[in-house]
Each structure stands twice: as C-alpha cells, then as structure tokens.
Amino acid sequence: MKQKAPSGTLKRCLKAVSQYKLLVALSLLFAAAEVFFTLYTPLLFGQAIDGIVAAVKDGMDVIDATLLRTAGLTALCAVASWLTASLNNRMTCRTVQKLRDDLYGKLNTLPLAYLDSHPTGETVSRMSADLDRFADGLLMGATQLFSGVLTIVGTLIFMLRMSPLITAAVVVLTPLSLFAAKLIAGRTYGFFRDQSSVRADQTALLNETAGNLKTLRAFHRQGNYLQKFDALNDSLKAVSLKAIFWSSITNPVTRFVNSLVYAAVAFAGAFAAITSGGAFTVGMLTAMLSYADKYTKPFNEISGVAAELQNALACAAKVFEVLDAADEAPDGALEPETIAGNVEISEVCFSYDKSKKLIEDFNLSVKPGQKIAIVGPTGCGKTTFINLLMRFYDVDKGTIAVDGVEIRRMKRRALRAGYGMVLQETWLNPGTVRENIAFGKPDATEEEIVAAAKRAHAWSFIKRLPEGLDTVIGEDGGSLSEGQKQLLCITRVMLCLPPMLILDEATSSIDTRTELRIQKAFDEMMTGRTSFIVAHRLSTVLGADRILVMDKGRIVEQGTHEELLAKNGFYTKLFNSQFA
Predict the structure, then answer these.
(1) Is residue 438 part of a domain?
(2) Do 176 and 121 have their domain in common?
(3) Is the full-model pTM beyond 0.85?
(4) Are residues 188 and 309 both part of a single domain?
C-alpha cells in the first residue's frame, strides 16, 4: 500500500539541517565545484581527439596540454570531493547530535502517562536506530541529490552548446526514467515505515526479555517469548524483503531507460558526424557520449537516494512523534520553605483511560503527624493515589492541597522534596553504595550516611562489601539481594528525613527479624511526620491512626483497626481472609 510521510516531515528535516547554514553553504559550494570540474574534462578530451583526427603538426602538443589540464582538474575535483564529504559528515553528526540531545531532553519533560503507554525498547529504538537511519538516508542522500541535479543541469548546458537537436532527444526520453523512479519510490515509504515499527517492537521485546530473564526462567516462559520473538522476526523479515525489493528494482529499471538514452545519443551523434560535413566532429561525439553517460548516472543515483529518503523520512517521522508529544503539565511557581504535612484531598476524580472510571469523588483530610494506612484489593487505586500525591499524574477533577496550597501551584521539586518514598520496587542506579544512599542529599557527610545505615539496619551488610560504602553496584543493585537493595532504599529515606513519608510494602523483601527492627526505626521516623502506608499485609498497619479501605477507586470505610473490625464490613473480610 502506498503511504506518504506525514505532512511537514521533510520541511522539519531541512529545518534541522539549516541550523548549520555555513557548513551547508560550503558543502554545496564545493559540490558545485566538483561537478564543474568533472563536466569540463570530457570537453578537453574531445578537443584532443579532434586534434589527433586533424593530424596537424602540433597534434601531440594538443594532447600533452590536454593531459596537463586534465590532471589539474582531476586534482581540484578530488580536493573538492574530499571537502564536500568532510563538511557533509560534520553537518550530519552535529544535526543528529542535536536531535538526540533534544530527544533525551524531551524524555525529562514527557508525562509518565506517555512513558507508561510506550514500551521502553520502542523509545530507545527511536533515539538510536531511527536517528542513525535518518542520518544515513536523508542527510547523506541530500548531498547526492544536490550533486545529481547539478550534474544533470550542467550536462544539458554543455550538450546544448554542441548539439541542441541531440540534447532535445535526450530531454524527451528523460521523463521515462523519472516516471519509473517515482512510481517505484512512491511505494517504498509504507514498507520502510512498517519495517521501523516492527523493529521497534522487536527492540522492546528484547529489552523486556533481557531485563526480566530470571522471572522468565522461574516461570518457564522462555518458549512463549521465543514464539513472540520468532513471530516478530518473521514479520520483520517479510516487511524488510518487500522494502528491499521495491527499493532495489528502482536502479535496474532506471538503468535500462538510461541505456536507451545512451544508445539514442550514440546513433544520432554518429549520423550527425557523418552527414554534418565537419560541423559535428568525432571529438564532439566522444564528448556527447561521455555527457550522456554522466547525464544518466545521476538518475540512477537519485532513484537510489529516493528510496533512502523514504526510509529516512519514515524514521524521522517517528523521531518527531516523540518530540511532538505533549509535555507534562506546567510546573507551579510556589516553593514553600517548609512543609508541615497537612494534606487535604477534595472531590478528586482520576482515571488512566478516560473511558474507564477509576478514582471518583475521593475526599480525605490528613493532619500533620498522622499515620494513614491504605488497604484494599489489587487494582483498587492504592498506587494511583500515591501517584496523585506525588503529582506523577494530575487529577482530572478536584484538588489536592499540601499545607493549604494546591499542589499544581507548587514546584514539583519542592513538592517531591517533602516526601520520602520506600516502595516494594527498589530504585538503585549504577554507582557506589554511598552515591545511592546520598541520592536525595548529595552533601551528606560520611557520619550521617553511616548513622542512617545503622538506623536502617543496613550497616551490617554494607561493611562486609569489598569496598564498603565505595563498593560499585550495577544497574538496579547488581548482585545485591532484594532485601539488601530494599535496605539501601530505606537508608536513603532515613538520611533525608522528609516531613512526609510514603511506604509501599517497604519491608516486603526483608526477613522477619530485620523487619521487626526496621519497623521500630520506622515508628521513630514517622513520629511527627505525615505518613502514608500502602499495605497488603494488614499486620503492618494495625497501629495506624486511620486506615482507609479502598475498593474500585473509592474509600468504602475508614477508621482505626478496632473501629473497622467493629463495623464487620469490607475491612473485616480482608482481615479475616489473611488471619482466618
């Protein structure tokens, strides 16, 4: 099926290149010089041949002079060609570097809704593979396109000076080549677009598989994922073969048409040389044949470039899709110096998919220092509630206020600095243990780090590491156990001691004995701090000041543990299901 690049894609590509106008101008200038030197050479050879045919006394002198001039032109042509390639490569690298920087910067402004709805591998593919193909296909091809067009125009000028009639015959036959190239190249965009999409899906699957290999093996899902990969691989093979086939037949078809042009010039030129009575010489025929060859070659190159341009535009369109994605909502302007921890939630409504309701008419008032537990079945909205508190997502309706200030009026950095989070899923980065602990407080002293590690009961395993706090750990904690990684995350919060805490099954990966110790440390840390505890194990929230029982996005019950048990409602059923 014939597809076209989205409107404006080519214009945006040219705009991206136009930032380096000096490099573009110099590149085009040297490309034009290279074309001129290349086209002037056949004229010299034609004059030399006419000198030989005339058999004049100074015939050899004409040949010697022609060879010297040709050698000089060839040297100048080589220098111009080298400068053109060098400038073009510099322009290409800078343009791609700028686009890649823009993409990386865009990732920091995209809302979580975009990142949650697009596979990581797909985004990585657009930043790497698609940009590389954009560089190779569009930027490199653009120079070839300019040189090709200039060669065609220049050749026609030289040919018109020698024989307007033969030139007219060449021009008449030229549209056949253009029509063939356009007909075939017009079909390639859709195939290259599909190829890029399938490749992104394959990259996403590879990223998911490599990142969760232990889980796949634990559940014996290797065969299932192998089938998925084989299916994507087959799809990629099929669409790639179609793209390669259609892009490959362009050149042979145009070569055939161009051969017809060359034959027509040879026949007409030979006839003119015989019948013109010396007005059209053998040297001129030789030059015309050389120009006919040079005239047709750019069409072959342009037809090949056209296919590459379609591929480049398909990749560029996917890059621009990311750059055009809506940024997260604007940041607020207020930056409170201190946060007491008074949270007011009024008539909040929110859903990820606007066609499916999730949280509706959510109301909650939390005083500073209160310990709020949130319980309920999977999918009831507990984690969504945390995302709204941190403003990872904005509410669809209603307000969330901290210390009387609506959070959309606050700077995200100030809001999030007021929270300390320990989640069931650990967040660790490649670097030293010290850097991971001090991630939220980079200026922390070693004494503060060690004291926090001791309070979190993490110091006992940290000091046994090869380099202690300076031990380098890999992505997501490397070889550390799940419990050790979670202890490091707890230590990070212990070090910062923010005014509000969010604990989402913070001790789920820790042994029972250590959990009891950490629970005491948490109790001390939560004293005087507003705390939100998301719990699946109800035994961890029995001492909460208030327990919110959620179901289908609503608070169906709230109260202390004893009050909820006395109601003999939804909470009682949850409690009994765990302790019956």
Answers:
(1) yes
(2) yes
(3) no
(4) yes
Question: Strand pairing of 546-551 and 397-402?
Answer: unpaired
Confirm whether 452 is domain-assigned: yes
Domain that holds residue 39: 9-324
Dist. CA 499–CA 557, nearest whole Å: 26
**Cα dihedral across residues 506, 508, 512, 513: positive or negative:** negative
Residues 203 and 176 in one domain: yes
30 shares a domain with 147: yes
CA distance 528 to 548: 20
Q: Render pLDDT for 53-109 as a digit per residue (tens, 0 to 9).
A: 665 545 566 677 777 888 888 899 899 989 988 888 888 888 888 888 998 888 888
Q: Does any domain span residue 2? A: no
Q: Are residues 532 and 419 part of one domain?
A: yes
Residue 134 and residue 404: Cα distance in Å, rounded?
Answer: 50
183 vs 375: which has the higher pLDDT: 375
Q: Residue 207 sits in a domain of what CATH number?
A: 1.20.1560.10
DSSP 335: -
Per DSSP, helices labelled H in 371-473 are: 382-389, 412-417, 433-437, 446-455, 459-462
Residue 171 falls within a domain, yes or no? yes
| 457 token code pair | 């009961």
pLDDT recorded at residue 3:
47
Q: Number of folded domains in the chain?
A: 2
Rounded to the nearest integer, the mean pLDDT of the chain is 82
Residue 284 class from Cβ within 10 Å (0-12 exposed, 13-18 middle, 19+ buried)?
A: buried
Rounded Cα–Cα distance for residues 420 and 499 (Å): 8
| pLDDT tens digits along 394-435 | 888 999 999 889 999 998 888 888 888 887 777 888 889 999
Are residues 444 and 494 both part of a single domain? yes
The single-letter code of the amino acid at 361 is D
User: For 481-484, which contacts have Cβ atoms below 8 Å and span 24 or more sequence positions?
Assistant: 481/509, 482/426, 482/509, 483/509, 483/510, 483/511, 483/514, 484/458
